[in-house]
Fold this protein.
Amino acid sequence: MKNMLILVLLFTCSWLSGQENTALLLQKTNASELQFDTTNEDAVFIAKNKLTNKWGMYQGYANHDIKELIPPAYDSIDFFGYNAKLTGVWLDGKVGLYTSPWTYGSKKAKQTVECLYDGYKIFQVEKTVNDGLSTYQSYVDYVAVKKEGLWAWIDWMTGELKTDFLYNLDKEQMPYPEFEQEN
């Protein structure tokens, strides 16, 4: 099964390479410019819409289908990290957060934090989990957002600030998050 997945990914990535295919992607996304995610090599790319000059995120498939992952509504978009649950979307110099379609499904993948902040950082916090059958260690993603040089914790699923903007990360570390983050 793993070999088949690798073959599909290689075929998909090879489909996306080449000038002919680039022209097809530009046409299908009505784009003037493309940037490919070369880190994950999962056939994900961002495209700049010709009419609006805004970026959207897409994934190409071997059968030449293209799936829109993030609509072309942003000045820039960060690529999703490997197995990441969220990424940054930028508008008018401010960042918001968008959840991953691979983690939450395409119907639930959406912008969960408005573009209001100067920056963001993802922290993986180790937690002890007891699921009734066993107790084990798991990592939970927490996000801090920056505004006017200071940082605060935010619930990245709801957009609700969990602390005030109190922390200068140039001088101190973020305190341990005191809230449960749904992942």
